[in-house]
Amino acid sequence: MTDSSPTEHPTRRSRRPRPRRRATIASVFGEILLTVGVLTLLYVSWHTWIGDAIVQSEQHAAAQALAEEWANEAPETPGPSETPAPDATAEPEGPAAIPVLGEQSHGDVFGIMKVPRFGSNWQFKIASGITRPDILDRGEIGHYPDTAMPGAVGNTAYAAHRWTSGAPFDPIDRLVIGDAIVVQTKAGWYTYRFRSLEYVQETQVQVLLPVPNQPGVEADGRYLTLTSCAPKLNSLERIIAYAVFDEFTPTADGPPASLTAGVDA
C-alpha cells in the first residue's frame, strides 16, 4: 500500500505573489516627459505638413476665385472699329502709363502673388500690413505699408511665413536669376524678375528702402523685395529676395507669358 504523506508532491510549493513595483517620482516624471515629447512631435508634424497643406489648399482656392472675379469684371479690349484713327501730326506716344493702386487700409486684400518656379498652382492673396494674427498667420502675404505699391517707382516689399500657416515663402531659396515674380491686381499683372538672395539680421531694415540697402538714394527704378525667416524654424535671421520690374500686362489682355514661359519646375 502506498504511503501518502504531505511530501507526496515535493516540487509544488506555494508561491507568494510578488509585490507590485511602486511608482517613483523619477518614473512618473519620465513618463510625463515621454508623453510631452510625443505630443510635441505630433504638433510639429501637424504644422509642418498636414496643417500647411490644408492652409495652402484653402489659400490657393481663395486666390483663384479672386483672380476669376477680376477677370470677369475686366473691360473688353476695343475691337478694330472702336479704335480711334491715329493723328498723323501727333508726336509718337511714349510707353503706356503703368497703373498704380492708391494706399490701402490695413488688412485689405488687393493682390495675388504668383511665382511659376514654385508651381503652377502656387498663388497667395496679398493683404495690406504685416501683422501676424490677421494676415501672416492666416496664410496671406503681407505688404509693408510704408513701401511702394506694385508698379510704382520705388521698392514694393512683402513678408510671409516659411513654415506654418501655409508657408507661402517656404520655397523662396529655390528662386533662380530671371525667375518671374508676378503680382496680380484688379488692373492687371506686374511682372518682376528675380536678381539676388541674401541673409541679413532682423534689424537690417535697409532692405525696405526705396532703393534696397541704399540709404538716402532716391529711387529711379521699380524694385520688389520678399522677406521671411531663416532658418525656417526660428527667427535668427531674415532671408531676402530682390527683383526688378519687367513689364505690366492689363487684365483685358489676359495672363502674361511670364506665368508660363521659361520655367523648368
Automatic annotation (TrEMBL):
SUPFAM superfamilies tied to this protein: Sortase (SSF63817)
Disordered: annotated segments: 1-21, 71-100
Basic residues biased stretches: 12-21
Keyword Cell membrane: no
A Pfam family assignment: Sortase
Keywords: Hydrolase, Membrane, Transmembrane, Transmembrane helix
Transmembrane segments: 23-46
NCBIfam families in alphabetical order: class_E_sortase
The protein, known as: Class E sortase
Organism: Microbacterium gawkjiense
